[in-house]
Amino acid sequence: MIQTTKSSYERINYSIRPAKSIERKMLCESFRKLEEFAALETYRYIGFGSPFFSDFILVHRYLGITNMISIEKDADNKERFEFNKPFRCIQMEYGLSTEVLPELPWDYKSIVWLDYDGHVNLQVLEDLDTIFTNLMSGSIVVISVNVHYRPGQALNVMKKDLEDRMPNHLIDADLEGWNAAAAIRNIIKTQINDTIEIRNYPRANSNKFIFHQLYNFRYSDGARMLTFGGIFYELGEHGKFLKCGFDRLPYIRMGDEFYDIEVPSLTYKEIRDLDSQLPNELDKVKLPGVSNEDIIKYARNYRYFPTFSETEM
Amino acid sequence: MHNEVNAEPTKDFFINMLVKDIPLISAIQDLIDNCVDGAIRIRTNDNYEGLYISIQFDDKMFLIEDNCGGFSADTARNYAFRFGRPEDAPNLPHSVGRFGVGMKRALFKMGNIFTIKSVTNESYFKLVFNVEEWKKRKEWNLEFEEVAETNQKGPFGTTIKVSSLYQSVSEQFVSETFINKLIREVRLSHEKAIEKGLRISINGYDLVPVPAELFYSEQIKPAYYEEMINDVLVRIYTGISKTGYPREAGWYIYCNGRLLVEADRTQLTGWGDGHPLYHNSYAMFRGYVFFDADNSLLLPWNTTKNGIDMDSKLYRYVRQKMINMMKPVTDFLKKIKDNPYSEDDYNDSEYEAVQSYYELLKGLPTKKISEININELSSKFQAPKLVVVRKPNTQRIQYNKPISEIEKVKSVLGVSTLKEVGERTFEYFYRLECRE
């Protein structure tokens, strides 16, 4: 199959995937809260820019971050990436994330968003290990992985991807449909906590690191995806964390519960009409011919909804 | 009423348990560790010149002799022959023998009769231990054959002789393979002590240290990290060595100067668990970890001291650092294997490297790690850079082809990059059609 040899950017333009676009804006908005830990412009952003750099554009424009690293595995197309870099301050690092992450200096507070094309696998776990072994307090790490497995093949595929890191207790039903998201969230969370626990060994209690979950998104622009992430800080800075007020954002999820990003199919005229009624109590928003369900889906995310007027020029 | 239940161990059971899992070489190493501890005790300045340990054996007997200070009749009476280390036993800072079973276990492993003599400045004793006879007695105590607790004349040291060897032991003692292996392991294990002047000889062969060397110059620097963790000083080096022997690749772990793990390429040191599996591209990789502590109980070694206690939290913490420090080195090795001329770094230019990484490395010096100035090192491996020059008389070709066809060509050629596809297909055509 040709598809498997291509990067996902060759198959789809990231910036027009509506759920992803909503998620991106939500994440970016939440990153602002980090101000309690340090001035945002002192942060470093690490991501997989691909040729569209949609996340880099938002992070630079809205957060003012200039220390930016885009990891790109497709070293054959350097010219293309250099050309598409939207800002001069983005530093390209070619290679696999498992190769690049250990080479980076880690003496910056960081916002890391690893938006993987594929399923969770040993490389993903290795990246998490590298990141949480080196990360500075007051950093945010976000991981997106594909949690879409073909019916009946999930266990085998996952076993191949995870080898002896495969949780032995999983059965087919655990990976059926959206169930896989919960199973994979656990695998990622366990890896993060294991790495932190080992790293904490010599540290005094108030200096021990913790990982506090903030994001637990499920969405589908085709394939089912999971975005999991959170903030990493020293216990002594718990006060700063509380001050950030992440929990005031409606899409923040600190527990097992997911935030589903669902995108109703609406025309631009309908969107403009709904916008004119929002924000409002949901039972007061009405639009002829559009189901209440779709209206609610829209109303939950309308501030982050991609609209026609929004072009990235 | 007779309600007493007998739970006393039999001596037979006790001895069997003690020697069951210990290889002969480790048993001998335990005896050597005791001698090295003597050297550590009497020479606090780390200079062991003039001290020796001599080991001799054949199919009849085993003899180990040293002038490393000896142990007193008092120590023999109260501690040395106890099974397990009494809590009030005096602590020797920085020692390598610690669990209080080494000597007895080693002797039980080898034969039936031991004779131990030790001279210190304050006492002399001789003790003969016949295991078969001892087993028949109910008491566990031993008796000195000769003892004098007065000032003695030097040299101060200990002599232990084992006779009436078990058959499997006497067979091994005349095997060349065994002798070679013992020499190799003792040399490696006590390399640090030998470097400090301690003479160790086995059946007349003086062991010579072959200290580890890593590439070190302005251009290439090993990574170095140190941390004091709960009274244990941990030092880690990662770097690359001359091509040499792939079997020497991997991690070396020392506790108080004693090598415990040699050339490890298993999950113990992260290969295949946190780091990709070992592969011959990594043959030049070397990593060294030194754990040092005054209180040797804090070190992450297992009780037979032939390995690391993988469950130790300290070790797991250090292992995380090790993996972190090995990755830049192994990535560099992978890169120079895939791309000895580093085309990746100047893909889109008219430049080329004047030499390959291997040629570059050939010209660079190596240095003993003990002589490398750690102030020059950072916790990240510094890889050398190739010198590039403008390519003479070449021109770049660029074209597009359907991906499916490119993938087919890639798999037929067995290459992974587009650049290789272009070059190989061009070379192929040129070879078949254009050569005169």
Brief overview, please?
The complex is a heterodimer of chains A (313) and B (436). With 313 residues, chain A is of the alpha/beta class. Chain A folds into two domains: 260 residues, Vaccinia Virus protein VP39 (Rossmann fold, 3-Layer(aba) Sandwich), CATH 3.40.50.150; 37 residues, no CATH class.
Structure overview:
The complex is a heterodimer of chains A (313) and B (436). By secondary structure, chain A is an alpha/beta fold. Chain A folds into 2 domains: 2-261, 3-Layer(aba) Sandwich (Rossmann fold); 268-304, no CATH class. Chain A has helices at residues 18-31, 54-63, 78-84, 97-103, 122-134, 154-162, 179-200, 238-244, 268-277, 292-301; strands spanning 44-47, 67-72, 90-94, 110-115, 139-146, 209-220, 224-234, 259-261. In chain A, strands 3-2-1-4-5-7-6-8 form an 8-stranded mixed sheet, sandwiched between helices. In chain A, helix 1 packs parallel to helix 2. Residues 1-6 of chain A have low confidence and may be disordered. Chain B starts with 10 loop residues before the first helix and ends with a helix. Chain B is an alpha+beta fold. In chain B, 32% of the residues lie in helices and 22% in strands. The mean pLDDT of chain B is 87. Chain B has 3 domains: 11-206, Histidine kinase-like ATPase, C-terminal domain (Heat Shock Protein 90, 2-Layer Sandwich); 213-368, Ribosomal Protein S5, domain 2; 397-436. The longest helix of chain B has 26 residues, at 313-338. The interface between A and B is medium-sized, with 25 and 30 residues.
